[in-house]
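Bug #77: duplicate submission created two jobs. Keeping one. Sequence:
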Amino acid sequence: MVDPMSQEERDSGNWLLKMVFVAVITMSAGMIAVQAGATTGELLAAVGGGFVFSAVLLWYVVRTLGELSTGPSADRNRR
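Kept job's structure:
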């Protein structure tokens, strides 16, 4: 039988998932810039823009999911 995850394990996993989410979106912006033949400055701007966009998107997703998971039914569904 599998033991339930501790809060520390859950927090660590959530942090890793968030970092992978940001890295994938950030690197996607950079790879698109490279495919378009961007200069070094344009590449850095694309990666920076991708990072800012991914951070804002992550904030929105976490906030929205947090609102959806609050309430009496959220505690009942967790085991």
